[in-house]
Amino acid sequence: MSGIKLTGFPFLVARAERYPVEYLQIPSETKDALREQGIRNVADLIHFVGSQGYSAPECHRPLDALNNLASVSSPAGPDWFAYWEARGFEFHEMCLTCHELEEFDENTPVCAINRKSFGNAGAMLARAGYDTLGALAEGLRSGIGDVAGMGGKKRADFFSRLVDLVYCLREGQLSAGSLSSRFPLGVDGDNGARDTVKATMAYEFHEDVLGLGIGVLHAGAKTKALIAAGYRNVGDLAAVGSSTLIALPGMGRSTVRKIEKSLQSLQDAQDEAGNIDWDRYCDAIDIPLLPVDNVALDGNSFAAMVGVTLGELGQTLHDPVLQKIIAGRISKPPHHRETLEDIGSSLPEPITRERVRQKEAKLLSALAAGLVNDNYAHLEVHFRPEFADYWKRAATYFADAEEDITFAALVDGLIEIWGADRAILLEHLPLIATVITGEVMTTSAFGDATRLDPRLLTLSEADRSIPLRHLQIGRAARALRRHGIETIGDLISSIRQGTVSRASGAHYRTAIAHLDQVVASLDAHRRFDRHTYLKNTGVPALPEKDPSSPADFMQNLAANVSEILAANPPRMRSREIFVLRTARPIATRLTMEKTAEVLDTYGPSVKREETDTLEWLNEVILRGDHALAGIALRPVFTRTWQRINEVFDEANGDAELFQRYLAATFGIEE
Length: 670
Fold this sequence. Notes:
The chain is an all-alpha fold. It is 57% helix and 2% strand. The chain contains 37 helices and 6 strands. The strands form 3 sheets. The chain has a two-stranded antiparallel ribbon with strand order 1-2. It has a two-stranded parallel ribbon with strand order 3-4. A two-stranded parallel ribbon has the order 5-6.
């Protein structure tokens, strides 16, 4: 990372002391860390970054912010709106300023802040004393702390409305005068406005319909300007005439006629109780209504309907890029999704990966707006309320989550609020998660969770308890065990919680990929079939035959262990050393030196390899680490060894006592 870019930097330095670090809207943990360093304003930050060295890790985020701010600075000062835009309108603090708001203060109150002008957030702000635009602008310049009743969702809505307001002010679509007339001082946004609407209403709407957001009118791109001008619901628009609307900056006659047609069609489609016949309404304004089939939905049928509905959406789109995004990415399981590059390069006139990403992000944003907020400004379809209601319930349920939602929490939450069966929900979850999160996931930790085969999440407790060392994943089993992941169930739970993924390292990638072999080895009852697993993986089961009796076990012991060592020896000469030394009685066992002579090596090398070999055999035979050996041990052979180990412990290391106990236990001669 290089130093601060020079563009606009001298102009920034000249005013840097005026701006607290909160204006930069950097994440709270970074801002708090800077405050602990005594950094109060942008000037302090510039000095700190320079003194620490531009490449210091703690300077990365602040340096990015300074570069963004310098790039939009001029002799007149920073263009804060351009700064917000460059950083994706991401806000962390209610502490900011911009040229468009700086003319407002306590002496220039301009207009009222209430529910009508700033939604529910406006009501909370007014209650806290920020009841005029002047008071709000002045408060933001010095910083507004926690506001009672203003949680994360209301804060997000507040910043969205504030950005819209500033945008309309800088573009000339709003002025202090128009704001004053739209939201007059001293008028309660919850009471007086409704009486005014009813008095001037040109349409006859049921009260429930009056409260519908203007997004249901499908007014297109001008919806944002209408909202910024204070027209937020059907009642607001129904109360004004076409002459008022046409006078708004940038509003054309075709848009006004479209709004009037939608209002009339909506009125015609309502009944006395305020219910809307959406088929009639959408047919009148020539907008497809999805799902096409109007069927009663429960949690299971809804989950199954998601893919069908998005397929129907794809058929209504005219943009070939969006069609490909739905068909090749959104509607596919994560591991079968085309990349952004694939889609961009497959078009008759190829486009860049970034352009595809932008279109995809806008489509998902428009989907969420329509399904959750009934805002169809950027979507030329309409969703049936029964279908959209499931998405609204999900949005409400997860709205106040203070941390990132894990895969497990998402699944459990959706099962609770939708009443869907786990297996059916999991079958359609990748598509559902894409719509909920607004992200077409592929290799992220959450993406790994969505790629889990649903059958893995319904394994029995016995199958979940199978140790990873019984799977053919090599040294990955030992590596994961060191991190507390010992069984198939542990691995699945960690993936679901998002604590591990393929990005966690090579051993994790090996183990996660091998879960496909587990799924392929499930029987018709979804139980793990060891015989099928060994056949699918091509793993030899040793010894060739399970011992038929303790005597048979003892008689073939040396040959069977030698066979195990031959399959995947831990050291190059493991089997030869075993045959020459370990497997022989003491009377005929070769010394270290003699063994080294036979193998053309040195005594210390023989000792080291023998020690490694015996440790390896202990790990494989007694601890059952089949992954390490690349084999599977037969059950009777393994159980016999485990009983021998128990007898050895009972003898407390006494060789003669061990021999007598062993003979007595298995009924064989000493």
